[in-house]
Amino acid sequence: MQALSSIKPSAHLADVRYEIRGALTRRSRELEAAGLDIIKLNIGNPGRYGFETPAHLRQAIAAHLADSEAYGHEQGLEAARETIAAQQRARGATGVAVERIFVGNGVSELIDLALRALLQPGDEVLLPSPDYPLWSAATILNGGRPRYYRCLAANGHLPDPDEIEALITPRTRALVLINPNNPTGAVYPRALLERLVAIAARHRLLLLSDEIYDEILYDGAMFQPLAEVAGEVPCLSFGGLSKVYRACGYRVGWMSLSGAPACTAEYRDALQLLAALRLCANVTAQWAVEPALAGAPTIQALTAPGGRLHEARRAIVEGVAASDYLDLVAPGGALYAFPSVRADRIAAFDDNDFALRLLEEEHVLAVPGSSFNVPQSRHLRLTLLPPPTQLREVFVRMERVLARMAAEQAAQPVAAMA
User: Fold this and answer.
1) Beta-carbon neighbour count of residue 57 at 10 Å?
2) Which range (145-149, 265-269, 385-389, 413-417) has the least confidence?
3) Spatial separation of the C-alpha atoms in residues 213 and 223, rounded to whole Å
4) Given 9, 22, 56, 284, which is the most exposed site by the fewest CB atoms within 10 A?
5) Residues spanned by CATH 3.90.1150.10 within the chain?
6) What is the pLDDT of residue 24?
7) How far apart are alpha carbons 336 and 317 in whole angstroms?
């Protein structure tokens, strides 16, 4: 029998990364299989940390199981889209209508559809650095080129509008914002969004606003929907059930196309074509959209002082403050913190090496900052989802690894002279 040749993957994947579920996660599973307990800080998956989807969402799905057995409308159940459109209009979005709402199998699928409907080979998309890496992956896989604008800790992880505008070329098609931000927790003020909208208007860019963490806010931080600021400027706003409603496994996300309808009519039709090609989103879970958006909010009890997410955030902020090695811009929203290792304490630092040592030596799984398209990163992303007591233990373990790294570096000149 002739030997079989190996199957080569697509070249498109050469620059695609998703370390949130990558090599470190695979190694953690091996350690677990060997009997070790791993503290996992790598993923924003509330259901894995004891958070529950509100009961009225479960009840709505159960009540409509018999109505969920046929394909639905390619853009989503009409009742769900009407509720989403009403939410967007209440937030001040312009030109929103049911036919401009798209429901998908999570925001992840809709990001891919949005970029696939937009990009020609070689087109550029302005992305934050750090970004949520799916945005980079979807840009690359749809023939585009990521162009990164920095969101530096020195600026509170907020972007510089002048830097963004300087990156624009004739091939630039879109500007992506993640607000509240994953991985930094930054929440964008209205004045900044106004400047970014003006840039998009001058250069005829489509605004893409990932707002999946819109109601997860701390200590008075205020979320400003981009669509309201954008007005007539074309804008796609993304939301869903996974984070605010702790329903990741439902895989229900949506995007709302706002702005002047005449400017986006062809693009809207392209989105509908792509939505139709995948037939429809999961019908069963869409019944939870209306009770979620129309019902009483439930996340604020978790994010207010005394709530579990607020206290987890407090544990991280206090853990960094007590550290000899770490700095942090306290997150204003979302489910993450993005601490960095101080260069004056550990000069030579590799975030991937640190994350691996933290896993191997102290059995803590976190994500290195370079996984979020940050060059020369000294950062680590931590999720706020574990119990506060566990997060305090994480900082004890992190401090031990950092102390060992600092001692090893201090000993190197002595070893070299010996």
Assistant:
1) 25
2) 413-417
3) 9
4) 9
5) 11-51+301-417
6) 87
7) 11
- Residues 188 and 209: their CA atoms lie apart, in Å, by 11
Question: What pLDDT score does 18 carry?
Answer: 67
CATH number (3.40.50.2000, 3.30.2310.20, 3.40.50.150, 3.40.640.10) of 55-294 reads 3.40.640.10
pLDDT of 418 higher than 60: no
* pLDDT over 90, % of the chain: 89
Which region among 15-19, 120-124, 353-357 has the lowest average model confidence (pLDDT)?
15-19
Q: How many CB atoms lie within 10 A of CB 34?
A: 7
Q: What does the pLDDT average to over 222-238?
A: 97
Which regions of the chain carry the CATH code 3.40.640.10?
55-294
Q: What pLDDT, in 10s, does the model give residues 379-413? A: 999 999 999 999 999 999 999 999 999 999 988 86
Q: What is the pTM of this model?
A: 0.92
pLDDT at 417 over 60: no
Cβ within 8 Å of residue 410, ≥6 positions away: none
CATH architecture of the region 11-51+301-417: Alpha-Beta Complex (3.90)
